[in-house]
Structures are given as C-alpha cells and as structure tokens.
Amino acid sequence: MGNVHVYAGTQPENIQREAAIAQAHHTDHIIINGLDPSIRYYFELAFDDGKRIITAERFVYVQGTANLRDIGGYLTQDGQRVRWGKVFRSGALTGVMQTDLTPLEALGLKIVCDLRSHEEVAEMPDRLPQNPLPQYIQLPLETEDNPRERLRAILFDKKRLEKIKLEIYTRLLIDNNAPRFGDTLRYLSNRENLPALIHCTAGKDRTGIAIALLLVLLGVPEDVVIADYTLSNIYYEDFKAFAQKALKPLRLLRIKAEDLYPLLIADDKTLHTALEHIRRNYGTVESYLVTKAGLSKEEFSQLRINLLEPSN
Length: 312
Known about the structure:
Blueprint: E1 3-9, E2 22-25, E3 42-47, E4 52-56, E5 69-70, E6 81-82, E7 87-90, H1 102-105, E8 111-114, H2 118-123, E9 135-138, H3 147-156, H4 160-176, H5 178-188, E10 196-199, H6 206-218, H7 222-230, H8 236-246, H9 261-264, H10 268-282, H11 285-291, H12 297-307, E11 308-309
Parallel strand pairs: 7-10, 8-9, 8-10
Antiparallel strand pairs: 1-2, 1-3, 3-4, 5-7, 6-11
C-alpha cells in the first residue's frame, strides 16, 4: 500500500477535504486522534493513484434500540459501491429516550418504514427523531404462522423450529408479502425520501429480507448479502432478553428464551434457502420484484442511481 490521505465529515456529502486528518505510508492501519467520540464520522481514503473510497462505522449506537446500522459501502459485482448514509436498518425505536435522540437525529432521516404489524405498533410505538422529524410509514408484513404448532415445537420438538422459521421466510414473507416489499423499495426509489430507515421489531427477519432483496438488486454478491444479514447476531443477547420478556405469560410451562434459539439467530442457511426459494419459484430476485412485488424497470433504475456510487 502506498500513501493514503484520510479526510472526515459528518455526512458522505460534506467530507472536509481542506486538510487531511491523518496520513498513512505503507501500512494497513491508521490510528486517528482528535475527533469527537460522540459523533459518527464518514472517512474518505484518498490514494496516490487517484482512487477514493468512503467508509464508516457500520453500526450506529443509539441507546434504547438494537441492530441499527448503515448498509453502505458494499462493493457490487460490477465495481460500484452502495452509498453510505442513504439506507439504515434497525430494530424498533420504542425504547429510545428523548435524551438519546441526538445520534438518531444526526442521520437526517426523511422517512421511517415500519414493517411491524398494527398490533405491535399499538403496543410499542416508535419514538421518532424530532429534528428533523421524518415521515412515518407503516408497511405491516403478515408473519402469523400457526401459534399452536410453534408452541408444540417448543415443548416437544425444538428441531422443528428451524423448519417453521423457513416457512415464515418463504411462504409467509416472500410469497405472501411481496407487494409490501415492493412498496418499501418504491419509497427508496424516490430520492426525496433518503436517508431512510427500515425496521421491524428486531431488525433481523422482516427487515433482513427487505434489505437482502435491495442489496441483491443493487448487484451485491450473495455471500456478502448473507454476511450482512448475519451481523444481526451481534445483538443476540438483546433478542434473547426480549424473548424472555415475551415468554412471561408461559412461565408455568418452563419455556426459556434459549429454547427459541433457532428463531432468535440470523442463520446464514435461512437466508440462503430464502433466496433459493425465490430463484426456484420466480427465476431471479429482479423477476420476483417485477412479477410479484410490482416494481417497474424505471424504479429499479432509480434505485441504482440513488444508492450506488460509480466505480472510480
């Protein structure tokens, strides 16, 4: 590696290029001092050959919510990169306190797409940032499978939980909720709606499918898409705590959160099987989004314009 100059800014569009905050000479790492640790920065790496790459910390830490992260920076198969700071994903914003809104407000969100059911939203409404105040859009995905079957599996056949989860991903989410996924991506095709946040309860399953569809459509390799999906496992302890709370009405049955392990993790095989289901039944993700989700070629094109940086 040759010489690298590092510049920083609070948004990808306002990188301060007047003076480098650090320089690297023939090394694979840089230690940067003097920046405010409470602020999330975007960094531009400028190489001797003229190449420039923007990067950032993927996770955004906001007390009271889990799994909030930026989907930017991924390299596509044709050499472009997903733009940073345009699309975020997370769990519900229910627990965010008024005093903890600053890092959320710093994202500059224009819309928040909530994929939870009406019942979930009524029980645990989002606490939205106020400055700016994003438009709140509810796009409820139907995920109710068979509660009795799930309970029987928990009590008597925990191995069946993996099959139940796959059925939720394929039959319920992908087959039955395609128009909702189409609506979600349609909002992102309008530049005026960016930056946007897509979330559900944990930011893992419903949000995981929505983001996977988007990244595949943008040309991100499938192994990278699956790796992004599994990043949710960093918050496994949060998911387990939430499950334990939800299980309180069943405490006499002695069900523990650990019994729900297959439902609480973001397993790479689950998303791989879901994408295989799309290919087997619809041909490609793009054809699924056209024939089943109702997106147009023009909306595809606008998504790529909005969310991809040209190769340099």
